[in-house]
Input
Amino acid sequence: MAPQLGEGVPEFRYREVLACASAVSFVSILLPIWVWLPKDLGRQLGLIAFLPFYLPYAFIPLRLYGQRLRSGLTLAITMGGALVVPGVYLVRFAITWDRRWLVLGNLTVALLMQLVLIIVGVKAYIRLPRLLRTGLRVLAGPAYGFTLFTSFLCFYSPVPRYITANEGWAMRYLSAAATSAFLDALQKHSNSYPMAIAGWAPVPNPRCAMDDPWVIPPGNPTDGYFFEYTGNPPSTTVEGCTRFQSFTMTARPVVFGRTGIRSFLIDSSVGPGIHFTSENRPARTTDPKDYVRHVPQ
Output
């Protein structure tokens, strides 16, 4: 006979509530993972990597209806406590970036189920008789929950992966272009900078634009960022070409909030570093700098 749960309160079906909450959590977590996993990386491998986050929900009913009642309650409380905060983060992420009803709905349901697991699991657990000798087994559940929670925080990003990739590429591209401009001015033109960079914008006189094989023109601009180069006065005329004593380079998202959320600026007159802003405007020299991908002096 299976262990009784909630003696004295027969109308309150703890097992049924916890089993249903576990099953709903399993499905509601699995569906967003399947939708979000990129096909090019292999969804099967992704599902295997996320097994610790959804598979334990399948074991909760097995333990509750078997001879491991206390273990089932502990696992229910562990999973609910470990994933309730990540659930809040993911719901907020879906509201900000995804907004598909399938994803947002499943994440919301999953979050509510974590609260059910915690509340009902704790209420049922306190009705069990106390065990005097539990040893280190009592720490297994909290340790597993802590591992899941910290793993989520380590890998979670509030910004979608493709936006982060776009921004990283834009910064690297600006840095490479600035480096080429510095070398071009230092080695060939007595520290004066060109009027334009070939491939960035139409130039009346292509001979006056810097044409460097290391500065590859951007691909389809709708994929991420568009770039601009401007020479800053004072200027001089050398061999029929206007050259400048400093320059600015900018990168802005093609569609703010969709292809990028930061704009970048390099100004050779204010020293190394890439200025950035998360506001929907061009970056300025008064904005903070990112020194990770700095511009050589």
Remarks:
- The longest strand covers residues 225-238.
- The chain has two domains: 14-158, 162-290.
